[in-house]
Every structure is written in C-alpha cells, then in structure tokens.
Amino acid sequence: MPEMRFRIRWPDGAMEECYSPSTIIRDHLNAGEAYPVGRFAELALAGLEAANARVRARFGMGCSQALMQMAAIRAGAIRFADHPEALVHVEAFLP
C-alpha cells in the first residue's frame, strides 16, 4: 500500500508536512486548493480515516501514524476555531 505525504499551509502561514498511509487521501483533498479550516479538517480526517481503514483491512490493525496525523490536524484546526473563514492551502502531494 503506497503511503504518501502532503504539504499544507495553515492560515498563519505555517507549513506542515502531513502523512497518509494510502494514496486515498487524494480522493478527499486537491493539491493547489484552499479550504476553510473546518472543511479542510473534515475532508482530511475523512481521507485519513479511509486510509487507516485500508491499513486495518490489509494488516489487521490500524496505522498509528495516521492516528497521530489526525490528532495533529484536529489540534491545528482548533487554533483557528475563532476564524472559520480562514483558509488552509493544500500545497502539494509528495511521493
């Protein structure tokens, strides 16, 4: 199962490289697109949950890195809860 990384830019300009254990994340997010914080978190978490389900189906257990990435995205999104119009940019998918 090919893992992948994707780079995001939070509304404050901070860059973050994120991890997905599956390329299915590309079905949920588009490189070059900006999303309101809440929508980004919703889409990213759905993609990572789908990726984690694939790992669980194949190996009998989930991916701890995917769970940590989901926690990091939740924490990042909470920082901007007072600014729901703020945008998260999906910069690129990385090999």
Written account of the structure:
This protein is of the alpha+beta class and 95 residues long. 41% of the residues lie in helices and 24% in strands. The chain has two helices and four strands; from the N terminus they run βββααβ. It has helices spanning 37-59, 64-79; strands at residues 4-9, 15-20, 34-36, 87-94. The protein has a four-stranded antiparallel sheet with strand order 2-1-4-3. Strand 1 (4-9) and strand 2 form a beta hairpin. Helix 1 runs antiparallel to helix 2. The chain is globular and about 40 Å long. The model has no long low-confidence stretch (mean pLDDT 96).
Record the SSE blueprint:
Layout: E1 4-9, E2 15-20, E3 34-36, H1 37-59, H2 64-79, E4 87-94
Antiparallel strand pairs: 1-2, 1-4, 3-4
Helix pairs in contact: 1-2
Structure summary:
This protein is of the alpha+beta class. It contains 2 helices and 4 strands.
Record keyword descriptors for this entry.
about 100 residues; alpha+beta; 4-stranded antiparallel beta sheet; 2 helices; 4 strands
* Major beta-sheet overview: 4 strands, antiparallel
Number of strands: 4
Residues in helices, as a percent range: 40-55%
Distance between the termini: 13 Å
Shape: globular
Order of helices and strands: EEEHHE
What is the CA-atom radius of gyration, in angstroms? 13 Å
Instruction: Note the total helix count.
Output: 2
Mean pLDDT: 96
Low-confidence stretches: none
Strand line-up across the major sheet: 2-1-4-3
- How large a portion of the residues is in β-strands, by DSSP E? 15-25%
Oligomer: single chain
